[in-house]
Each structure stands twice: as C-alpha cells, then as structure tokens.
Amino acid sequence: MFTFFTLPSRRRGVGDQENGLDRILLTPYLSIAEDELDFQAIRSQGAGGQNVNKVSSAVQMRFDIRASSLPEECKQRLLCVRDDRLSKDGVFIIKAQAYRSQLQNKQAAVERLRDVVGQALAPQRARIATKPSYSSRQKRMEHKRQRSDVKSMRRAPLV
C-alpha cells in the first residue's frame, strides 16, 4: 500500500517536507521524498454515469527520474527501462483510475511505481544458452564424418 514513514527524534514543523521526513518506501532499502512525486487529479475515462463527469477521482502521477534523490546507478537503470510511461525527458507518468476513490488511485499509482523500480533494480538473470553454437555444430558434423569413414572402411568391398 501507500507507505509513509517519519523519522523519529524530531518535532514535526515548518520545512519538514524539504528535510525529507515524509518519505515513500520504494524497495526495502530505497525511499524517495513524497514531494518528488507530482500528483494531479483528473477525470476518469469510461462508463460511470453522471458521477464520472463531476468527480476527478483518477490520478496522474509524475516522477522525474533525473531530478530525484535516487542514487545515480538507480537513475541510469530506470532511464534504460523500455516502458511507454517513460517520457523522453525522463519523467515517469502513471495514470490510475481503477477505483472510485482518489486516495485509492493515488495508492495504486505509487504501487505501480514500486513495481517498475523493483523490476528495474532487480539483478539481471544470466542467459542460459539454449541453442548449440556454430563451432560446436561444426565439430559434431566433423566427428560424424570421421566415424562414418571408419565404419565404411570396415565394410566388405563391393565385387
């Protein structure tokens, strides 16, 4: 869900947003300040009767990767992600409109960002070779030809 955690040992007051007290946990070891995410309430698409035209319950979340407080390596891996939601300027735009509540849509957008970050930062699995290489196929064919020659020499000559 939408997890905030506040650092203890300080009284909440003016300027706490800039000091990074309200943070959103992306991975167990990585968090960003809440003010790095830009939320905008928009009207949902699709059916919904009169209510859909009156209420802005959908949420569009923008996350500027280049301007974020993430480590450089994380930024580079996120910028290399092939995703239609990533703009050329390095801004992730996530739209959530599954719920009728704006808060639930906000939580869903943050959850999707968590998924994207988790996948981008996950270690790449080593590729398992599934097809024999060209040289191994050539060696195999050469060995077969040699065995064929040996066996053909054992045959009785044709008279």
Automatic annotation (TrEMBL):
InterPro entries per UniProt: Pep_chain_release_fac_I, Pep_chain_release_fac_I_sf
UniProt xrefs under PROSITE patterns: RF_PROK_I
Biased composition (Basic residues): 137-146
One GO term (biological process): rescue of stalled ribosome
The UniProt record lists the keyword Magnesium: no
Region described as Disordered: 127-159
One GO MF term attached to the UniProt entry: ribosome binding
Keywords: Hydrolase
Coiled-coil regions listed in the entry: none
Transmembrane domains' residue ranges: none
Occurrences of domain Prokaryotic-type class I peptide chain release factors (ranges): 43-59
Entries under Pfam families matching the protein: RF-1
Recorded family membership: Belongs to the prokaryotic/mitochondrial release factor family.
Protein name, as recorded: Aminoacyl-tRNA hydrolase
